[in-house]
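Dissemination and training. As part of the outreach component of the grant, students in the summer workshop were shown how a complex can be specified as a set of sequence lines and then modelled as a single object. The example used during the hands-on session is reproduced here so that future cohorts can follow it. Participants entered these lines:
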Amino acid sequence: MAAGATYTPIATTTLASAQSQVDFTSISASYTDLVLVMNTKGSTTNYPFLQLNGATGTSYSTTTITGSGTTATSVRQSNTVNPYISSDAANTTGFEFNAILHFQNYSNTTTYKTVLVRANSASTGTGATVLMYRSTSAIDTITFKLNTGTYSIGSTFTLYGIVAA
Amino acid sequence: MLNVISGLLSGGAAPAAATSYESIATVTVGAGGSSSVSFSSIPSTYKHLQIRALSRTDRAVTYTSNIIRFNSDTTNSNYSQHELTGSGSAASAGGGANSPIYTLIPGTSTTSNVFEGEVIEILDYADTNKYKTVRILSGYDGNGSGQIFFGSGSWRNTAAISSISFTATSGNIVQYSSFALYGIKG
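and obtained this result:
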């Protein structure tokens, strides 16, 4: 039968000052999936990307589809150190960038890790990304970085945990 | 070999706490894989359903279809789907007026240990006045291959959905694949 509370907020960060990265650390392995909702602006037009478990090597890859308002495109990153959440949707100084990231079965130690992303920017475009982290380790740290500049004051990041029966 | 795995709802357990998002059942595929995964006896007490999955097939292809069916209805002409797919080099649109609802899951030609992530929502699944609408966000990345997939599916039937199955085309869904069914209250 159904469990009790299954969709639980774990942590929220609202930036009180501009930051070049945001970290969620010591993430409990007690959930089945993680969902992260971000709503951010940038000090300039900049592109958020992920690091998992502090891994800075080329253990990431992505496949993205985007719509710019005039064209739909799809691009890929292989063996990359900066897996972008979206290749087209970006932070800007004027409009919020928002994204919902799904970390499926993030604490299993058998499969590589798959992250599904829906990202939007009223300024630059909309799209979706699948990100792969070639590691079988449980994810316990999520870091949001940028290709340049900073996340602006007021940017929010909220991490939720989902528990399956 | 275990060919079919079902997530059956246990009876007689303590009632769930009052929440708006509840776990209904989970299936994790065991050793040997399974040709299909199903949920049955789904209660009609929720407003919407969500399925969160991680899956792969043992078929010797880069990727293949994972067919979604409701209430054991295997008549393809009762289903339709539209999709928007990104291959890493091109965005394309497709679909079929009388063809099943599906996602794309990686096969053995894709890097080992790569599984597709899926978030599938079935709106008003128990409303007997409506055909059923499904939306899908799914994808896998194989470090040089992969698909990101938006889907919108329809099952042209007004019956309440009480069972859901996933069946890989010409292969088994492999061990460690997992499918979790959640109910969302209205």
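DSSP finds no helices and 13 strands in chain B. Students were then asked to discuss how this feature might be tested experimentally.
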